[in-house]
Amino acid sequence: MKENRRIKGALLWLVLAGVMLIATVAMGRPASAAKAPSIARNWTLYYYQIRNTDGTKDYVAEGKIYLKNFNNYSEFTVIGFKSSNKKYTAFIPSTYDGIYVTMKYGVPRNGEKTKISFKVKNKGKTYKLSATVTIKKGPNPYKSIKIGKKNCTSGFNGYNVNVFSLSKTGKAKITIRMKAGYKLKEIGVNYKNGKYRNVKNNATISLKGLDEIYISYSMPKKHKGDPEKWRPTGYSYILVK
Description:
Immunoglobulin-like, mainly beta
């Protein structure tokens, strides 16, 4: 029995020695250096027209660009935003989910560019980054979009908000088919009495008192290898006249 205890004790010491050796080797290895933040050098920002129910038109040009090797935007300080084209500006939104680029004023021109530059600070280091953003007319994401018999597809050629005449009574089926690379995310219907609800594609809705239909979708990835969460989100509104 004493011999067995001595054998067990020896084995225990061997195990402990092995654990200590592994821990010592692991502690002795230098930690791999964290990768510096980086950004794709070229991005595309789409612009769309907005047609209001009173007949007036506006423009919207906005989108997000993303930094690589960021685990959490809130852990970094991003400062000193500059834009070579003064019509456009950039900032970090409160959600810390990207760098927001938007048009401040004027009318966007297809093919115009702006260079966005800024600094990223983290753990005593400062990184200077920049990207060229090309402004382009936004594509129509819909292969087909119908409200009952009303075909609204062509109304989104260059527009993301447009006005359509629909029946004031009865019901209609919402049928949306996206072009390749786009994914339908959400459909919402809003009524003049303030009631809003989400519906599924191919759902039948009441047209009585309908004020607007909201549609959101995921756009194609901008760069090969971008994570799924970087896929841009677009939206459209059908305003009922």
